[in-house]
Amino acid sequence: NGVLIYPSLARIGETVHIEASLGTLVQVLDIQGKEVLSSVQGNIKLSQAGIYFIRLTNNGKVYTQKIVVR
Is 54 within 8 Å of 3 (Cβ atoms)? Predict the structure, then answer.
C-alpha cells in the first residue's frame, strides 16, 4: 500500500514519521474518534499521552493505524 507510519509506540513530543504519497491527508484521531490534528503530508508530534489513530486519505483510499503515545 506504500504507507509507513513509525514508531507505533512513541514518547510525548517524539516525531511520528509518516511516509505516504504526495497530497495525502493526515488526520489524527483520539480514542473517542475526535480529530486532534489534521495536515497534508508530513510528520507529527503529539503532546499528550494516549491512544491515537492516524488516518491517511488519498485518491479515495483510506488507511488507518493505531499508535500509542506515552
Answer: no
